[in-house]
Design brief:
6-stranded mixed beta sheet, UDP-N-acetylmuramoyl-L-alanine:D-glutamate ligase, 16 helices, alpha/beta, Udp-n-acetylmuramoylalanyl-d-glutamate--2,6- Diaminopimelate Ligase, Chain: A, domain 1, 3 domains, Protein-Tyrosine Phosphatase, Chain A, 6-stranded parallel beta sheet
Length: 428
């Protein structure tokens, strides 16, 4: 991970103050990987579960880093030893945000964070506002600060995605950025390894509201908020009608429509936008990769790329979307393991087998956990399990027929997006 700092003088001043040491050079970039270091960078020697960045400090300095933060090793004029690198960077970020005069939007939730973030960014930018957003998966306790340091401090809006793998992550990030507007897209079972229970996930995700001025939550479960700053949005979308010209975006995609529903309410509060203007502004919005894009292939074959990540709730929603493709060809579900589900992981995979039965025509599974899905999918006409992506990809390419609708869904580590590349190359 590496970023260029857009306001090097400002960051250097904050950095000097936090380490209590005046430095006579400017820090123009930040890197957490010594292999990516550029001249003028600050290298962060972060200690992880399987590595210690402190071991690469000397290499980073030799490659052009002007200074380094580390948690162990020898201290020098340009190597600063601290108790916790991530914590110190967080303190600098909090100072930056305290001085930021623009408006900050923080977005978290189990599913839909990136799509909602990109949609809000799209709307604000097209409305003429100077807007910055976190890129990719820069949504961690180190990714969010680094993203902010790459922003201009003269922007009108910061749109920040906040992710969490364990208790305390959202609270830490929220206390750092103090969003003017907080959005929780939804809450479901995910990262149970880190949280321990669903109640802990609810508590963690909604902690963002403790630090925000206003909040929006598309409620799927009953949460009682006496604070009027938090608006609980009904999950019912019956009265949220989109124009026919947007059929190519929303048709059969209830998840995307639910995200847009939440984004509209937030944008209306932020900039008093009408529903007609909202739909006009998102006409040319493009979904982030792996979040439900529909690829139209030869012979009217539709392939739904939902490969970015997976948890029980998002998989069920994707299956429901697939089932809505009426008067088409066969419905084919390509499913990869769902990760980080804790001790209930087998049960969750069995539930997916039950859930998709009688809704699809073919299920193709990949991964050890997905074997449990196959074992519960007896009502599906064709059930196949594969030990490799290569064999699955080959079978799928050979099996495709005109008018088929194919959904690919699995955790990011399963890399089902590689199968999509194979299919696209196959039909060229």
């Amino acid at each position: 991970m590496r970023v260029d700092i857009q306001q090097p003088e400002l960051f250097t001043a904050y950095f000097s103050n936090e380490i209590d040491c005046q430095i006579d050079y400017l820090i123009s970039g930040i890197s957490t990987d010594s292999r990516d270091v550029k001249e003028g960078d600050l290298f962060l020697g972060i200690k992880g579960e399987h590595f210690d960045g402190s071991n690469f400090v000397n290499q980073a300095i030799a490659d052009g880093a002007v200074c380094s933060l580390a948690e162990s090793g020898a201290k020098s004029d340009n190597v600063f030893i601290v108790d916790n690198v991530t914590s110190l960077i967080g303190k600098i970020c909090a100072r930056w945000m305290d001085d930021f005069e623009g408006y900050t939007i923080g977005i978290t939730g189990t599913n839909g964070k990136t799509t909602s973030k990109d949609m809000i960014y799209h709307i604000l930018s097209k409305s003429g506002y100077r807007t910055c957003k976190t890129e990719g998966n820069f949504n961690t306790s180190i990714g969010v600060p680094l993203s902010i340091f790459s922003f201009s401090d003269s922007a009108d809006y910061y749109v920040l995605e906040l992710g969490a793998n364990q208790a305390g992550d959202i609270k830490h990030l929220s206390s750092m950025i103090k969003p003017n507007c907080a959005i929780v897209t939804n809450i479901s079972d995910a990262h149970l390894d880190g949280f321990g229970s669903f109640d802990n996930i609810i508590k963690e995700k909604t902690s963002i509201f403790d630090y925000s001025d206003i909040g929006f939550y598309r409620s799927q479960i009953n949460i009682d908020y006496s604070n009027p700053k938090v608006k609980l949005l009904s999950d019912s979308l019956e009265n949220f009608h989109y124009p026919e010209r947007l059929n190519s975006m929303f048709d059969k995609n209830r998840v995307l429509l639910a995200n847009a529903f939440t984004v509209y309410h937030a944008c209306n509060a932020i900039m008093d936008i009408s529903i007609d203007d909202f739909f006009t502004l998102i006409e040319d919005f493009s979904l982030p990769k792996g979040r439900g894009q529909v690829h139209l292939l030869n012979n009217n074959i539709k392939m739904i790329d939902d490969t970015y990540n997976a948890n029980p709730e998002s998989v069920k929603a994707a299956i429901d979307n697939l089932a809505k493709y009426d008067n088409e060809g066969r419905k084919i579900f390509v499913f990869g393991d769902m990760k980080e589900l804790g001790s209930d992981q087998i049960r969750f995979h069995k539930e997916i087998g039950d859930y998709c039965s009688e809704k699809i025509d073919i299920i193709m599974c990949y991964g050890d956990l997905a074997k449990n899905t196959i074992n519960r999918s007896n009502k599906i006409p064709i059930q196949l399990h594969f030990d490799t992506k290569k064999s699955l990809s080959k079978e799928l390419c050979n099996a495709m027929q005109a008018n088929d609708v194919i959904l690919l869904k699995g955790s990011r580590s399963m890399k089902l997006d590689l199968i999509i590349e194979d299919i696209i190359n196959y039909v060229k």
